[in-house]
Amino acid sequence: MKKLFLYLLLTAVGAVMLYPLLWLVGASFKTNEEIFSSIWFMPKSFCTDSYKNAWETVTPYNMGHYFLNTFAIIIPKTVFAVASSVTVAYGFARFDFPFKKFFFALLICGMLMPSIVTVMPRYLMWSKLGLLDTYIPLTLPSLFAEEGMFVFILVQFFKGVPREFDEAARIDGCGTLKTLFFVLLPCIRPAVISIAVFTFLWTMNDFLEPLIMIQSVEKYPLSLALRLSVDSTGQGYEQRKVIAMSVIGLIPSIAVFALAQKKFVSGITAGGLTG
């Protein structure tokens, strides 16, 4: 009886959490009048032309163009974030060097600092370098392990791998990098996948940083292209078109999470246990 009650409770909570997504998909097939007339997600009559109009956008470029722009940011940023975070965490977890505790304390302080306070200094720096309106300000910082939380998580995972693995690898002739790539990385694969998924989702949803760094509409990512469909007053635009654009924009995030769900969940839970 307790299990039945627990399952019913979890089902109810899951339905409440999923309903906004169901409503979003259903509303994309509704008319503008019907969207605000009922909270039920099923449309009375399906209008499929909203997706055709959404794909064309209000700019000279279609959504495919903005998807390519978005992936031009996401792919290098994800690769850089994973590579740099793994390398830095490996150094903190496995090696002793001068001022190690001090640098790790700086890392923790960086995690506690609100990211908004660094926006203006970064904008001025990239402006002086003449790199505004390019993707470099959005991708290059990830090459230097800018997300301290990722490094912190990986350090805990590395510490959870026995040092005997390193010693056995050295006996077999593995150097430092070979030990990392062929011995330790397979052991912390769930954490690495979790970091990649986090970076993908955060970059896909990022609005503020591209808004500040990118000026050309041609180079906008999908988040900024979606904003172009809504005017400043909130009137005079097709709600169902904007909703359809939102649904299309959600597809990559849902697909990535679905493909990496097993490793992602295990990486989060294992990190909570080892940390």
Describe the structure.
With 275 residues, the protein is mainly alpha-helical. The protein folds into two domains: 1-47, no CATH class; 65-274, Orthogonal Bundle (MetI-like fold). The chain has helices at 2-27, 32-35, 49-56, 63-94, 100-112, 119-128, 136-139, 148-160, 164-171, 176-187, 189-205, 208-213, 222-228, 239-259, 261-274. The longest helix has 32 residues, at 63-94. It is globular and about 70 Å long. The protein starts with a helix and ends with a helix. The model is unreliable at 271-275 (pLDDT under 50).
List the helices and strands and how they pair.
Elements: H1 2-27, H2 32-35, H3 49-56, H4 63-94, H5 100-112, H6 119-128, H7 136-139, H8 148-160, H9 164-171, H10 176-187, H11 189-205, H12 208-213, H13 222-228, H14 239-259, H15 261-274
Helix pairs in contact: 3-14, 4-8, 4-11, 5-8, 9-10, 11-15
Short description:
The protein is mainly α. It folds into two domains: 1-47, no CATH class; 65-274, MetI-like (MetI-like fold).
Question: What is the makeup of the main sheet?
Answer: none
What's the helix-strand series?
A: HHHHHHHHHHHHHHH
The first-level CATH class name of the largest domain: Mainly Alpha
| Mean pLDDT value | 84
Number of strands: 0
Keywords:
2 domains, mainly alpha
